[in-house]
């Protein structure tokens, strides 16, 4: 039987970490080391390995992610029928969504990692990688967009969130739940996207775009936001309170910023859709939308920032950006 060809690309993170002199762990295990720890893989796929980075999740940059996108496209052109990316869990929800927005390939793309490093009892990295390889090898996983596989569950990149600092079950999709699971080497995809979302062409040679993220808190005056335009920012995502609100004392400032930048409103609750027509107080969503603020719909602040960044980098105008957020599913 001919096995599917799957490429494993390592970026580092906990799954690749080992102890070092002086205490603590750091990413040192390469992609071939991770695959070699799973002898069963020879029955699942013909695996090739690439070590793109050996860094912690927070060290990744947008330029890294664009290079990763290009590497994945190259691997697919060279015959890969699935791709697995391993990385630090701190930013998996952002990396996976970025790839989901910028890749246009017809093979399963899976991102995975580990909550416990290999030096700890109960380290689950090898199991997560094995499950990810099973999903990337499965015909059932085609057409799903980029997926995150952790703790025997399959999540869509556009919904998944890391919701715990250390629990093995840290990854959840609050609005949807997992779309599939892995049991006894069997991949089950129980839910499929209702329709594909748009992908965007981002040229690495085009100028960089900076998008800030700000969380609103009680009695907040927003003064930290003054001067964003002068600091080279092109967009701002606000993690507002409740249904997408700010304090009354910062409402006028947000209106001013919306004249200079593209301002998108999400919610710090990280679950639920931003409101549009319920609250009319100064700082409520009706007031803010009237000043040009764009509701992020159900996208949490981190994903809203990724989507805004990608669209700005792809040269989209404000009307195109508004329409994309409005139609997002």
UniProtKB/TrEMBL annotation:
<dbReference type="InterPro" id="IPR004550">
    <property type="entry name" value="AsnASE_II"/>
</dbReference>
<feature type="domain" description="L-asparaginase N-terminal">
    <location>
        <begin position="5"/>
        <end position="192"/>
    </location>
</feature>
<dbReference type="GO" id="GO:0004067">
    <property type="term" value="F:asparaginase activity"/>
</dbReference>
<dbReference type="InterPro" id="IPR027473">
    <property type="entry name" value="L-asparaginase_C"/>
</dbReference>
<dbReference type="InterPro" id="IPR040919">
    <property type="entry name" value="Asparaginase_C"/>
</dbReference>
<dbReference type="Pfam" id="PF17763">
    <property type="entry name" value="Asparaginase_C"/>
</dbReference>
<keyword id="KW-0378">Hydrolase</keyword>
<dbReference type="InterPro" id="IPR006034">
    <property type="entry name" value="Asparaginase/glutaminase-like"/>
</dbReference>
<dbReference type="InterPro" id="IPR036152">
    <property type="entry name" value="Asp/glu_Ase-like_sf"/>
</dbReference>
<dbReference type="InterPro" id="IPR027474">
    <property type="entry name" value="L-asparaginase_N"/>
</dbReference>
<dbReference type="InterPro" id="IPR037152">
    <property type="entry name" value="L-asparaginase_N_sf"/>
</dbReference>
<feature type="domain" description="Asparaginase/glutaminase C-terminal">
    <location>
        <begin position="210"/>
        <end position="325"/>
    </location>
</feature>
<dbReference type="Pfam" id="PF00710">
    <property type="entry name" value="Asparaginase"/>
</dbReference>
<protein>
    <recommendedName>
        <fullName>L-asparaginase</fullName>
    </recommendedName>
</protein>
<dbReference type="GO" id="GO:0006528">
    <property type="term" value="P:asparagine metabolic process"/>
</dbReference>
<comment type="similarity">
    <text>Belongs to the asparaginase 1 family.</text>
</comment>
């Amino acid at each position: 039987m001919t096995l599917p060809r799957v490429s494993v690309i390592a970026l580092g993170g906990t799954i690749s970490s080992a102890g070092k002199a002086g205490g603590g762990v750091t990413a040192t295990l390469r992609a071939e080391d991770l695959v070699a720890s799973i002898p069963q893989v020879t029955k699942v796929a013909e695996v090739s390995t690439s070590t793109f980075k050996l860094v912690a999740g927070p060290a990744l940059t947008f330029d890294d992610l664009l290079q990763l996108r290009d590497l994945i496209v190259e691997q697919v052109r060279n015959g890969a029928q699935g791709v697995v990316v391993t990385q630090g869990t701190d930013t998996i929800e952002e990396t996976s969504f970025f790839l989901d927005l910028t890749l246009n390939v017809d093979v399963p793309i899976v991102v995975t990692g580990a909550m416990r490093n290999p030096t700890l009892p109960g380290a689950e990295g090898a199991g997560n990688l094995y499950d990810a390889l099973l999903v990337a090898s499965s015909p059932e996983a085609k057409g799903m967009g980029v997926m995150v596989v952790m703790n025997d569950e399959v999540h869509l990149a556009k919904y998944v969130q890391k919701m715990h600092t250390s629990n093995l079950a840290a990854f959840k999709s609050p609005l949807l739940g997992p779309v599939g699971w892995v049991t006894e080497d069997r991949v089950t995809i129980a839910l499929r996207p209702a329709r594909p979302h748009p992908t965007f062409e981002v040229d690495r040679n085009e100028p960089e775009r900076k998008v800030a993220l700000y969380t609103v808190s009680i009695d907040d005056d927003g003064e930290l936001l003054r001067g964003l335009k002068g600091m080279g920012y092109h967009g701002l995502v606000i993690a507002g309170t409740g249904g997408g609100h700010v304090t009354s004392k910062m409402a006028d400032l947000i209106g001013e910023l919306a004249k200079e930048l593209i301002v998108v409103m999400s919610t710090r609750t990280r679950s639920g859709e931003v409101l549009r027509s319920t609250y009319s107080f100064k700082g409520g969503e009706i007031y803010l939308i009237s000043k040009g603020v764009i509701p992020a719909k159900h996208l949490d602040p981190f994903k809203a920032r990724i989507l805004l960044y990608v669209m700005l980098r792809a040269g989209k105008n404000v009307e195109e950006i508004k329409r994309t957020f409005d139609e997002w599913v």
